[in-house]
Amino acid sequence: MQDDMYFSEIDAIREVREFENAKTLARLNKNQIDVADPDESEKLSSNEDYYDYSYTSRLRRFNKNDNTWSYYDPYYTNYYWYNNSNTSYFGNSLYTTYTWWGPNFSNNYNSRYWNDNKYNISIGKMPYNRYVFNGWNTDKGYTNRYYNSFDNNCYSRYNRFNHQFSALMQKNGITRNVFQRPEINYTAIRESKVTTPTIADTSLTIDITHMQSSNSNRDTDNNSSNKSLTSNKTTTNTTNSNNSTTTKRWDNHNGDLNISPNSGKSADNTSRTSRSGVYSEGSRNNNYVYKGSAIQNKGSNNNGGTQNKGKDPK
Amino acid sequence: MNAQQPRYSFSKIIALLAMFILFMPVSFSQQYAFDALKYSFPYQVGTARYAGMGGALGALGTDVSCIANNPAGLGMIRNTEFSVSPALFFNFTESDYNGVKYNEDKFVFNFGNLAAVYSRRLNKEKTTGIQFLNFALSYQRTNNFNINVFFTGVDSSFSMAQKFTDVAQGFTPNVLTADFEQLALNTFLIDTVGNNTTYQNMGLQNTDIKGFSRQNLNGGSTGDILLSSAMNYGNKLFAGASFGISMLNYVRVNNYTETDVNNLHPQFQTLNFKQAVDVSAIGVNVRLGVIYKPLDWFRVGFAFHTPTWYSISEDSYAELTTSFSTGQYNSKSPTRLFDYNLTTPWRIQGSLGFIAIKKLAIGIEYEFADYTNMNLRPSSNLFLAENNYIDTAFTSQHIIRLGTELKLDPFKIRAGYNFQSDPFKKTPLLTNAFHNISLGGGFKIVIGKNKKHERYLVFDLTYLMTLTSGQLKANEYAAIPRYANLKTGMHNFIGTIGFQF
């Protein structure tokens, strides 16, 4: 029992250590909360070191055991992989939720890509603002946006209207006129270890507006589109005979959102796909296939492999 | 008032000498000098822990009563706490005049200490730098004047009636002292004869055999309200300061009675002369202290107390009642108001503290005060004689305190001893010393826990015994004084209840 008269130097050291341990424990507990409750994570956003799902993303990186994706691969940074409660989250980076960026981002990606403003939301404290979102390395545009050369869940440094991811999608023949996020089975692709097929003609326009939200028509429509693709292009599709939709531990989505980026190289190894921002789907009828854009081959954006693992843009 | 055998034997008591509270002046003009000594003399009880360890906490600190001795001890407290220390005070005095003994006792309930401490931790992340900054508001009782004395006897060398007569001779009735011989004239104890400046004694003569009795009643105390602050620097250096507001109240009543036991006088029967004084004062002082703890088991402390600057207000009156065969007469003087100032001596303290195996604490303390530094003001003419007497009769005082505590969680056992030398000059060091012996214990239990640390309930109990002896004059106006021998035992039971958050 403590008695001040007998307090010694050892007691003082122990008190300091107990305080440090309590501080560390409190910080760990706080990080764990954002895994369990996305709403709680928003309350904790007052900590300037905190960004949404920081702890979960750390777990995801830690648990990844085949070095498939780079540090800033959208697999790790795409907000939607952590919170699929709103499709508008898709394509927005976790790092845009740092609280010291003040007003958090709005889902400009979605508004530009999906051409539907109704999906514009703000994750964080600020209300809807179509063009306002946080970032550094601002370009000539009038907005201040998040840009990370290693993270394709952001807009182009040089063109504020070009979201990196959307740019990749466009260059691979997917227009902005898309009202529904394509359903892509990344898990199947990854597990099949199939290389990403290339699309010779990047001007291919794929109209997927006919895609319905109803699941009953999905397969039929997808099959039709795939047929269209197949018929118009010389495309090497990698058939994923394994239509497994095995849920992996990082796939905390609904059954039809079993998506993860692939990791394979192209079959001929001539067109090496980037391991970031390139989504190569399998040959399932409901999958889209596109290759990585030339952006990945540029040095500034070359983030192939884990060798170029970046750091959190603090 | 009972004439009986003493309640306890003093055969085993060592060094029982002068009682400071019964310092009696050689002359009336010295009364204020002795009062000054009475008001300056420390008799601190404090908390049960403080009293139990003999007050030797100057270096050990951590008790709220330390604030009154070494304020740096406040810096060693690591919890916000509140404590109250009620005390029961029993005083037993035995008087012996020519073999006739009387016992008087007095019982008083008071508070030795009340304190509230706010402890603010400034640094949790490292052991260097300022760790704590503490503040306290406390009340500490610093002296106790409660004692009663009574004795009787037969005397044929002095008569109060004759004294009144001698003092009045040569003065007209209108210039007689209102609270002395004027009362005798008013009650027919003296009367003019021939002219209005010659008086005759209407009572007993000095050589007449008479019975007399002396009753001395004393009450009151001094206490300090202390505003204190202290800091803890790196758990090594502690420094603190206290600003004190001293409050004093003292009441004294003397009753002297003369009785014609042999019916020698045809008319005079008895007289009773009463003198009452009611004193109240307020003063200020400052205490500074520092404690250095170079090692976990050793610490050294130093404290300085400034003088207390008192502003004293005194109300006094006298009353004489005479009884003759023709009737009873009474006269009371107007209340005399008298204000003056007193400066008590400054004090310095040095102390050592030892901790063994985190279970045994030993404290040693030495305090020095020079009573020739006392000063009554205004010093010109009015108190010239008193101040000269202070310079010639008094000297420095040495106080030694020893205390120890054994910690056997959750219990503690304490013992202490306190020695105070006599402040009178030409007295050997161990003569007329003042001795306090204490024994106590307590326990501390956990009653809860908040976010930071545990909450404690502290309960302590201490028995403090003070033994003194001395003499009291049968009458201070007698040319050849006669004395009664006094033996006094003061017994304090102090309890402390404290909460630490």
Could you characterize what this model shows?
The complex is a heterodimer of chains A (314) and B (501). With 314 residues, chain A is an all-alpha fold. In chain A, 27% of the residues lie in helices and 0% in strands. Chain A has eight helices and no strands. In chain A, 40% of the residues are buried. Residues 102-145, 175-183 and 194-314 of chain A have low confidence and may be disordered. Chain B has a 14-stranded antiparallel beta barrel with strand order 1-2-3-7-8-9-10-14-15-17-18-19-20-21. In chain B, strands 5-6 form a two-stranded antiparallel ribbon. Chain B is built from six helices and 21 strands. With 501 residues, chain B is mainly β. The chains are: A mainly alpha (314), B mainly beta (501). Chain A binds chain B through residues 1-10, 12-13, 15-16, 19-20, and chain B through 60-63, 76-79, 124-127, 131, 235, 296, 355, 358-359, 361, 405, 407, 409-410, 444, 446, 453-454, 456.
Uncertain residue segments of chain A: 102-145, 175-183, 194-314
End-to-end distance of chain A: 45 Å
Helix content of chain B: under 10%
Count of DSSP-assigned helices of chain A: 8
Helix content of chain A: 25-40%
Biggest interface pair, counts: A-B, 16 and 28 residues
Q: Stretches of chain B where pLDDT falls below 50 for ≥5 residues?
A: 1-27
* Number of separate helices of chain B: 6
What summary fits the major beta sheet of chain B?
Answer: 14 strands, antiparallel, barrel
Q: Multimeric state of these chains? A: heterodimer
Beta-strand fraction estimate of chain A: under 5%
What order do the helices and strands of chain A follow?
HHHHHHHH
How big is the Rg of chain B?
Answer: 26 Å
| Mean pLDDT rating of chain A | 50
- Briefly note the structural class of the backbone of chain B: mainly beta
Q: Describe the strand arrangement of the main beta sheet of chain B, using strand numbers.
A: 1-2-3-7-8-9-10-14-15-17-18-19-20-21
Largest sheet of chain A: none
